[in-house]
Design brief:
The structure is a homotetramer. Chain A contains nine helices and 17 strands. Chain A is of the alpha+beta class. In chain A, a hairpin with a 2-residue loop joins strand 7 and strand 8.
Chain lengths: ~375, ~375, ~375, ~375
């Protein structure tokens, strides 16, 4: 994915490791494995009430591309090893595809050769590779452009977060296990999740994202529009089923006079009165905050019995799956949304020449 | 866009021509410029009540890649000339960006060199190039895989289409100017559009799309998921602000037990009881109909006066724009959605080897 | 081909038109169809003694991407129509592949659907699309970087050009029909070609190319090395069978102490004493002139009778082909080598940020 | 590199590891780390007389994409750790670029952030990643198409190998330290290398490659011709300065009647009497053996004193470098040429549908 800041992801849920190669990161960015691990911690299960007991320690190994603490311009390869995996439940259901999962499509597509343990290549586990790449991309766009990315949980099941100030989002979004910047709403969300858990079920939700201080001019018209590339990235997160920018689906019921963001001058700069466009006009960022929302489906793996088909015998069967799974994956997807957004913005910033292949001369080490 | 069935679009609203090059189309597909023109007709303004009076005759010239009526395997270049353009209104507002339009971002990104006449490269006019490519892609996947694509208007302003049978969609969607397969609802939609027009305003809407008889196994996990590539294509349509697959944003309020599509056997084939996934699991088609919806914003160009900024003087000004524009662009986007869907499916069918580089030996002419 | 300055070629020898789309050309470059035609003239047959009598007028139509004389940043599509084609000789030998030509491989690859008239997609005619793209690329790198590209014929059959000054290359290379900057040697080359023509045969040769004043730092290590991308482009010219940089094949017999270009300081700049590397070290330009040579095979179409196989009957047959062909295609490939070199350099200059997406503010028209 | 069988290389000479990710390898190919290590052994220094004393054990770790001994269709990541590195000599010459090396261009391009130890990203060490990818590609095309790749040293300094039978190449090419299939010539080559070593110098050479039993129809006309893609890959091998197919540079002095490969029928198949085209016509394989040669320059690192420039002071200095280096790198490049050839052929076989995304049903394990 990407053209200038390119990432390649690899790894499976229960395989040896999950990793990423970043090709095209500029030389001269200070980065450490500790910083990458700090980002990975954000997607780790934080609360037994809502998450799987699987412990992911996620020690990052930087295999290449970083020298004396700085990126070199060469490809950066990073991995985390997979630990504490229990593949037994998956061996038992090898021929029984789990509803809502990729088991069936993977088996057909790969002729049965796919690694089915823990969802294999289709597991949420692989988003660790996105977060590793995102850690580098976030730092890159923050240092060079001052751009900041804030994602947060805005809905879990029926519980919706109302209007909220950016300052609170920045400070509070990672302060609770559901990644909702309003503590009261967060509590309600936790309760919804706990209830679903008790009932052997799962819940979905919505993640919102705000990009502050984006450069003007990112995105190319037509096929490489910023919306095109952001949505392509976001739909690569397992369980994301919808993406909308700015007013999104609400535009259907809006009049042009209402939806159009009228231009004003503020502090000598061109801005818009409203931001229904989500900061993107004609596929190109206009300098206003970029805003979007994604819908995350309820975890497909649930303890409740479900109908399935034995793919060997083609007989109807009942599935009772015992693998460990989060009751709600929305909170874990929050840093993943931030990560992929950073990767896309880094890529487009490089494409349009806003970030150069060698960073500024302030480094102590040239 | 694409990897095997690759398309490159070019042209501007008031330039010489709009065109497309298809690189990678298999050899041996029978195609004529007439067939391409027939598809183009579907995106043409059909009714003065809701559309611009601009007449687009759209005579297709196939410049390469077709020989004796069949594709040759070489790149297919096709163009339509731009006629009857009136660029005067655009000269008058050269420094006054229209709210909701790409005028401002384009000027910043291209340093003022962009062709601003009729929106230039950002005009809906360029979707003619998508439709030309789609005409070839549609025929390709229909002939080789029996796959059919049906898009239709499901909402205009507050008027929503209810449940509808596939058979009616197939027959009736192009029978009225709003491309809604239910004539009664279509009438209501027309009225909503007429009212907005009278009021110097515009309206948005929603387009739904169903892909019937898709092959199983299209899409790659992670970055080239079918959802990723379809959404990337759909967001390249000007005015599209949201994309959802299957149950889309509704998954936020669903339980796993409700959203999961349980597997059954029907006619010896594995199917699912419901289709909340929209026919895509793990980013890969599962053989069920692929379903998605896109939100189209209200036409940004409206007769009503709007606030804008003179980009030369940075002074606030009032904009009253006199260019011709559809009051609702939803109907014209319907065939465009079909076209780009066909292009993405053709590309993925070729990637996974379901469509070969030379089509079957039934041709009379080898 | 390319990543930032991307070109897509289309068209066949006897089809409607030959054309190119350039995607990614910066906004603000002044360009006219006349300038492109001037480049095309350089590849036109100039002398009946050595070339085909086919007249190629090559009137360039710019279909998009240029507005008021300047590039807009949008894709630039250009075409030339094919005129005065005589396809009759090709109909006669439809099942008799010409030795040395793509007739056989094309027929197998495209299942017989390929346009076989005049070699179709495999004709030297398609290099007109390279030259059109090259006209833009040449101007781009000349205006922004001061880089100049000089290709010339250095060998035809046994006649070799000796050492020659750059100044003479610049002035004289297009002063004679063989594109050799030494008039005396040029005369000998013409005689070699005339002799071959009289004998119903054809001759090959070598083209050398010097890039003056290239920027330092073009090319990426490993797969996108400058040598990799230049050679990829050069081997897309029909009839090119070998490419070497700097000392090329001679390095096999050189010692390291002899082949290494030792570093010196000249006018405060780092240079090398010799230039055996051809200006490229580790796949990256080092600021010295980039030098390379390509071998062009003798025209495969010759009047002499040759052995071939009837692909329908699989019987051995004798081929006497009557199509019109140059006895030596080396001279016509000279501007093509320049064009593709310019395209690759423009692309790499944009990749490394040396050329921006909007050109300098000197334009009168912003 | 590549479109369907895509490889991404990473790692530096003295970094943590060198590795590769293969994206797009079909599911169902049996592969073990042992097989990959066996290929890596072929590029290991085998003889103190001609090679560096650095010991490369090259234990391969497969991190992903292989499950129960078979490829899964997911990306395959493989690494070898770097061991026994001595970076001291490189610290000493940090500001003294070695002639013939990428030290200077790398420093300029990456602003001094590049990993300069052992040549970093520009080291021959990175070809280990090519060989790992090649091990998979070789097995893939061998099992599915029966295609075999034989590279060998045909020249070292002035010593040239004459005509040789394919059978001997297959059996003897890896039987001696210079990878020359004729033991007598090999001895002479060793002596040339030893002499250069004694004299503090190095020597270059030529590698030839024959691809036996290639499929017909690989390669696309114009930019993705088989020659284009093979040469792009081959020029990514450090030290390669020239590539020629079939008769290569000799075509300059040949007549068309001599160079054209006339068609004949043999065993009911279309073949050519000669193979001057090197098995490629119009950029597409014609079924005859694919033949090409590459020139490898003499190792730039030599004990002899050389002129260089201190990049900090811009003063002229004398360089006496003490790092360990092969006197002749030609032999080590032989398996690298085979590996990259296999990767390109695997990629093109997948592009044209000759190799499917899931391999045949003969696997015991579905």
């Amino acid at each position: 994915m990407g053209k200038r800041f390119l990432i390649v992801s690899f790894g499976e849920s229960h395989g040896e490791a999950v990793g990423v190669v970043i090709d095209g990161c500029p030389a001269g960015l200070r980065i450490s494995s500790q910083e990458v691990e700090d980002e990975l911690k954000l997607r780790r299960p934080v609360d037994k009430r809502i998450s799987t007991p699987r412990v992911e320690e996620d020690k990052v190994e930087i295999l290449s591309g970083v020298f004396k603490g700085y990126t070199t311009g060469a490809p950066i390869a990073m991995i985390v090893r997979n630990r504490e995996v229990d593949s037994k439940p998956y061996e038992e259901i090898r021929d029984l595809p789990r509803p809502g999962h990729a088991d069936y499509t993977a088996k057909v597509k790969y002729g049965g050769y796919n690694d089915y343990r823990g969802g294999g290549r289709f597991s949420g586990r692989i988003t660790a590779s996105f977060v590793m790449a995102g850690a580098v991309a976030k730092k890159l766009i923050s240092k060079t452009l001052g751009t900041e990315i804030l994602a947060f949980t805005s809905q879990v099941g029926p519980v919706k977060l109302g209007e909220i100030q950016v300052e609170r989002v920045r400070k509070l979004r990672y302060s609770n296990p559901v990644r909702c910047p309003d503590p009261e709403t967060a509590d309600k969300m936790v309760k919804v999740i706990e209830k679903a858990k008790r009932e052997g079920d799962s819940v979905g939700g919505i993640i919102k994202c705000i990009v502050l201080n984006p450069p003007i001019g990112l995105g190319d018209p037509v096929f490489d529009s910023l919306e095109s590339d952001l949505s392509k990235a976001l739909f690569s997160i397992p369980a994301v089923k919808a993406v909308e920018f700015g007013s999104g689906f609400k535009v259907a019921e809006m009049r042009g006079s209402e939806n159009n963001d009228q231009f004003i001058v503020e502090d000598g700069k061109v801005k818009t009165l409203t931001n229904n466009s989500g900061g993107i006009l004609g596929g190109i960022s206009n300098g206003m905050p970029i805003t979007f929302a994604v819908a995350v489906k309820p975890t497909p793996s649930i303890p409740k019995p479900q109908k399935t088909v034995n793919l060997k015998t083609l007989r109807q069967e009942k599935l009772v799956f015992k693998g460990r799974h989060d009751t709600c994956i929305v909170p874990r997807a929050v840093p993943v949304v931030e990560a992929l957004t950073a990767v896309v913005l880094a890529d487009h910033s490089m494409r349009s020449g806003l970030i150069k292949t060698v960073l500024g001369g302030k480094s102590e080490r040239r």
